[in-house]
């Protein structure tokens, strides 16, 4: 997998459920270009165990993302109809009722493949048959995309490992701090803490030693 940092986020047009109750046939991240940052996260599958905890966690923090001018978008390899049914199932029954951000249907698995998070490889065997190795679902990938459509941060967890939504917010804060003040953010930095000035001389010196 080639690193996606600093590159344009792979484009896609796919069905999605928005506002928790409306299916749209042609959802794209292009609507956010020049307007909003995007946190695009992938999860393995609807109607599972860890996944609803993550989707609800993003919903609970949605106000924090929105006040930072960030659109949150979920995506899995399920169909839009599966998403819709899950959104209409109560939380206490394992559903995600109440989730309002868009959830994209990557039924062809091409979005997950283009973002490097598909947990399966497809090979042709000696009989010429196409076979899958691994689980044909998405790893728990999360991508922070800036207003120009470039990926500035991403992390990919294996299937059993749920992610930390507060860490996603911290990374948004770090990117926005850098964009506003030109300061770089050291280890364990959080909003309100001191950052560091990055001079051309300092960068050149670092590169010359490494």
From TrEMBL:
Transmembrane segments: none annotated. Pfam families: 1-cysPrx_C, AhpC-TSA. Its main location: cytoplasm. It comes from the Bacteria. One of its GO terms (molecular function) is thioredoxin peroxidase activity. The keyword Protein transport does not apply. InterPro entries: AhpC/TSA (IPR000866), Peroxiredoxin (IPR050217), Peroxiredoxin_AhpC-typ (IPR024706), Peroxiredoxin_C (IPR019479), Thioredoxin-like_sf (IPR036249), Thioredoxin_domain (IPR013766). The keyword Oxidoreductase applies. Residues 3-177 form the Thioredoxin domain. It is found in: Cytoplasm. GO terms for biological process: cell redox homeostasis; cellular response to stress; hydrogen peroxide catabolic process; response to oxidative stress. The active site is at 51 (cysteine sulfenic acid (-soh) intermediate). Keywords: Cytoplasm, Disulfide bond, Oxidoreductase, Peroxidase, Redox-active center. GO terms for cellular component: cytosol. Belongs to the peroxiredoxin family. AhpC/Prx1 subfamily. Thiol-specific peroxidase that catalyzes the reduction of hydrogen peroxide and organic hydroperoxides to water and alcohols, respectively. Plays a role in cell protection against oxidative stress by detoxifying peroxides. This is Thioredoxin peroxidase.
